[in-house]
Known about the structure:
This protein has helices at about 1-15, 25-40. Helix 1 (about 1-15) packs antiparallel against helix 2 (about 25-40). The protein has two helices and no strands. The model has no long low-confidence stretch (mean pLDDT about 95). The radius of gyration is 13 Å and the shape is elongated. By secondary structure, it is an all-alpha fold.
Amino acid sequence: MKAADRRLNENSDRERRAGIRHETPEYQRLNRRANEAAAEVSFWHGGTKRGR
Length: 52
């Protein structure tokens, strides 16, 4: 999850420096992967997965 978040943030920084202000396909792909990774991690460990 942390690696996916890091890649998303690095891409966002790169795009911001390049003057891109909209969500690119690459941003959307990385964001989707970060969300998928967060869903696999417990809420108590920083993810979004809820216990039963």
